[in-house]
């Protein structure tokens, strides 16, 4: 039974949300695009998605669940940084947490790649200023300016542990989704997302998935940063 709380004399019911989070660079923006086209409240309209994305990093479409206006489905890779506070907030009910998972070295290298690409496109003066004030770039390095192998991996590992530790203290369903498989295998992704899809059939899901998914855009950053297709649920059904 939900507990009501008062705000300026009004009785208010808790806000319900689904959260997409993790290390980022794992297809989270694609998930928001897909779920938007499927009619789930992500805070975006299908025709407006491109305006809120960073095309260089293929990132964006994020909200802060702490904002009263946050939509039902909230994507934010940095949720881990304040997860404990949100989970303790009686005003917020998290129905489900979705965590796409990618090879750690590949996720880190993807952030290094985005940073290098973004910096290379900057004017010379702006690039020089980064030596004195390194601003975080969309889809780029987190909490570190080091491009050395291993540095970003440590940041992401600590971030993911912080997230899992906070979730371990709560009774919330958590679903792990493998990247890049999620952009190749629609039936697999449907099975993973079923708890939040309500009455959406697999047939309708796959129709939208086949339009939105762009597996050709996926970069491979390590030997294990790929999907072979041998576990395709759609292939197994067709066999």
Automatic annotation (TrEMBL):
InterPro entries the record matches: P-loop_NTPase
Name of protein: Sulfotransferase domain-containing protein
Which species is listed as the source? Planctopirus hydrillae
């Amino acid at each position: 039974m939900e507990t009501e709380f008062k705000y300026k004399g009004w009785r208010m019911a808790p806000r319900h949300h689904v959260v997409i989070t993790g290390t980022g660079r794992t297809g989270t923006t694609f998930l928001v695009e897909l779920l938007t086209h499927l009619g789930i409240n992500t805070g975006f309209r299908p025709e407006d998605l491109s305006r809120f994305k960073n095309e260089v990093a293929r990132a964006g479409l994020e909200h802060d669940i702490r904002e009263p206006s946050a939509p039902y489905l909230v994507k934010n890779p940095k949720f881990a940084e304040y997860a404990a506070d949100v989970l303790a907030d009686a005003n917020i009910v998290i129905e489900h947490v979705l965590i796409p998972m990618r090879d750690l070295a590949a996720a880190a290298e993807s952030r290094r790649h985005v940073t290098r690409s973004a910096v290379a496109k900057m004017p010379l003066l702006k690039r020089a200023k980064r030596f004195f004030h390194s601003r975080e770039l969309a889809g780029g390095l987190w909490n570190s300016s080091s491009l050395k192998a291993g540095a970003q991996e440590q940041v992401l590992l600590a971030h993911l542990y912080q997230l899992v530790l906070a979730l371990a203290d709560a009774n919330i369903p958590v679903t792990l989704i493998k990247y890049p498989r999620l952009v190749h295998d629609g039936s697999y992704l449907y099975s993973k997302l079923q708890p939040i899809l309500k009455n959406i059939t697999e047939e309708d899901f796959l129709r939208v998935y086949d339009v939105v998914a762009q597996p050709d855009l996926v970069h491979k950053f390590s030997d294990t940063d790929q999907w072979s297709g041998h576990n395709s649920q759609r292939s197994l059904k067709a066999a």
